[in-house]
Every structure is written in structure tokens, then in C-alpha cells.
Design brief:
Strand content: 25-35%
CATH class of one domain: Alpha Beta
CATH topology of one domain: Alpha-Beta Plaits
Strand order of the largest sheet: 2-3-1-4
Radius of gyration: 42 Å
Structural class: alpha+beta
Number of helices: 4
Helix content: 40-55%
Oligomer: single chain
CATH architecture of one domain: 2-Layer Sandwich
């Protein structure tokens, strides 16, 4: 029984030394390190508004109501449409920031009970423009000139394009 109490005493002594070591570490050694550490943090956000260098616009042309309902076109009417579009192309070449220039003119048909019936004409054309912001006044002048050319033609209409960045 004496051996039992000796073993119990040694175990209790080891436990007491372990607890004393933990207390010493927390109370004396842990506080020493924490007094020397100093942390700063800062969140920085920066924003900047950028202006685009190049602007884009698509000018679309299509058949107006007169052309859409005209069943057949004679040669003088076809020549008038071709001449008008050639004037638009010549004017757009002057500024040198639009590309494109082909157009399609074709009959439009409707179908009922498997029978093809002429309905009118279709016209489709597109100019793709790319320019710098300092040339915006030139682009607006081009649009005004195109509108003046189109106003003389009874068959073609033009859209007012949105300028995109």
C-alpha cells in the first residue's frame, strides 16, 4: 500500500508541476511577447473615371413605306436608289472613319396557301463608323449631310445611330 501512495504522490506532484508550468507560461512569458507587437490596418479604395478613346456608331438604312409597298421598280427608280447611296458613300469617304458601303435591294414576297405574292421591295445597308471623341462634330456633320441626301430620295430611310463606347 505504501507503493500505491508513493505512485499517487509522484503522479500528483507531476500534475502540480504541469499546472504550475502552464500558469508561469501564460502569466509571465505570454504577456512579455504581447506588449511588443503592434498592428495597424487600413483599407484604401481608389476609383478613377476613364474616358474612352474611340467611339462607335452604326448607321442603318432601310426601305421606307414607298419602297416597301412598290411591287416593281423600273430602271430609273433603281438608278435613283443607287445614285443616292453612292452620294452617301462619297460623303462618308470624305471623313474617312466609316466603313461598309454595300447595299441590297430585292423583292419582298408574302406566302399564302403556298402561293408566292409580291409584296414590295427590301433595302438594307449599313455603315460602321469609328472615330475619336475630338471628331464628334465631324460625325454629326456627316449625319446631317446624310439626312440631307436621304431627304431627296423617296425610297430610303436612315436611322439616327447611338454612339457607343
Amino acid at each position: 500500500m505504501l507503493a500505491f501512495f508513493k505512485g499517487l504522490g509522484v503522479g500528483f506532484l507531476c500534475l502540480l508541476l504541469f499546472v504550475a508550468g502552464v500558469v508561469f507560461n501564460v502569466e509571465f512569458l505570454g504577456k512579455k511577447d504581447s506588449n511588443h507587437d503592434l498592428y495597424f490596418s487600413r483599407n484604401i479604395e481608389v476609383s478613377n473615371t476613364l474616358k474612352p478613346d474611340i467611339l462607335y456608331a452604326n448607321i442603318n438604312f432601310w426601305a421606307n413605306e414607298n419602297l416597301s409597298s412598290k411591287i416593281t421598280l423600273d430602271n430609273s427608280e433603281k438608278a435613283e436608289i443607287t445614285n443616292t447611296f453612292n452620294q452617301i458613300l462619297e460623303r462618308s469617304k470624305k471623313e474617312n472613319f466609316c466603313s461598309g458601303g454595300s447595299f441590297s435591294l430585292e423583292p419582298n414576297f408574302s406566302y399564302k396557301d403556298g402561293i408566292q405574292t409580291p409584296k414590295g421591295q427590301r433595302f438594307d445597308a449599313n455603315l460602321e463608323c469609328e472615330f475619336k471623341e475630338n471628331r464628334l462634330a465631324d460625325f454629326n456633320k456627316l449625319l446631317n449631310d446624310i439626312n440631307s441626301i436621304i431627304a431627296k430620295n423617296n425610297f430610303i430611310s436612315v436611322s439616327t445611330p447611338a454612339i457607343q463606347t
